[in-house]
Specification:
- The strands form two sheets. This protein has a three-stranded antiparallel sheet with strand order 3-4-5. Strands 1-2 form a two-stranded parallel ribbon.
- The chain has about 210 residues and is mainly alpha-helical.
- Strand 4 and strand 5 form a beta hairpin.
- One of its GO terms (biological process) is proteolysis.
Length: about 210
């Protein structure tokens, strides 16, 4: 009897937070002008049938991520937004400036133009170090939207700076502190690492332009 009560409480707690997370994410993306949401599906499929131990199973494996995706799809539909699940293989192991489609087709690590080591991605094109999960997120967008080049981002300097600076949020921060304005990075703060005109001088705008 006690197990049933705890199980029902857990389900209500997850549903409540999943609704809040889905609403916040969809509202945030809608307010910032996004029309499509791309979700990597491998992380969800890879935990099917696995056993990572009692504690990890409780913290990760037993979480119904498919339920969260369905809620995101439902709430996105209210705004006329589309949700697309994307095969995320090689996305966190490939430079944002490399041909991700060639990598996925050939499975040639040399084409990745970089190497992942834990949470770190060492980009050989720019000779910079990025966060691997952020690189993966960018490449999931590229694969989903079939984008070879990076001109979809209006400020490439800010774009690359964001790849170096992951933000870890608690649920309470996501619900009450994150807004479209809070996600913006002031250009004056980051100018030293990426001098003015570095993209143009390096030729990346010509190589990866539209």
């Amino acid at each position: 009897m006690k197990k049933k009560i705890l199980s029902a409480h857990r389900k209500r707690w997850l549903d409540n937070n999943f609704h809040k997370i889905a609403r916040k994410l969809v509202d945030l993306l809608h307010e910032t002008g996004h029309k499509t949401i791309y979700i990597g599906k491998n992380a969800i499929e890879s935990k099917n049938g696995i056993d990572l131990g009692k504690k990890t199973n409780q913290d990760f494996v037993s979480i119904p991520f498919r339920r969260l995706i369905k809620l995101i799809e439902y709430k996105a539909y209210e705004y006329g937004m589309e949700v697309i699940e994307v095969d995320e293989s090689y996305t966190s192991k490939t430079s944002p400036l490399a041909n991700i489609f060639e990598v996925k087709e050939t499975k040639n690590k040399e084409v990745c133009q970089g190497k992942r080591d834990g949470d770190i991605f060492k980009d050989k094109v720019l000779n910079k170090v990025f966060h691997a999960d952020l690189v993966g997120a960018v490449n999931i967008i590229r694969v989903g939207a079939k984008l070879l080049r990076l001109r979809f981002y209006e400020n490439l300097k800010t774009f690359f700076i964001k790849l170096c600076n992951p933000v870890k949020l608690k649920l309470i921060d996501l619900f009450y502190k994150v807004s479209p304005e809070s996600l913006r990075i002031g250009s004056s703060r980051w100018g030293a690492s990426f001098p003015a005109g570095w993209m143009e001088k390096s030729g990346y705008l010509n190589t990866f332009g539209t």
